[in-house]
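Appendix B. Raw example, untouched.
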Amino acid sequence: RLPALKGAGADLGCGAGLIARAVLQSSDVTSLHLIDIDRRAIFASQANVSDERAHFHWNDLQIGPELKGLDFVVTNPPFHLAGEESRALGQTFVRRAREMLRPGGVLWLVANKHLPYEEPLGVAFAQVARVCEQGGYKIYEAR
């Protein structure tokens, strides 16, 4: 359901790299930073994404990496921290995405249907649209 993206971007909480693989199908993507706090996720994404445009970062988003001026960010934020549901974690992903994007850049966020991302997206971005809701998930575009 994602459109063909272009320019430089990031996949926050990349997990095994499945979203990144879809993003990198567009030849207009110049670079994609895959970021995850879980070292095993970085290893899995490296195994699943063999593209010279991919750059892997084993990082906690709360402290880095310092990426700026990106054209797009994609994410399916985790919502469990130490076995407990944490809405603050997803809110951190939204805030960090806004910080990484250039003016006019776009965030594509995939979320479980029950998670309330409308408010944090509305605070961080001027335009927010729910573009899809299906199979227990929803997708937002935010600019």
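End of appendix B.
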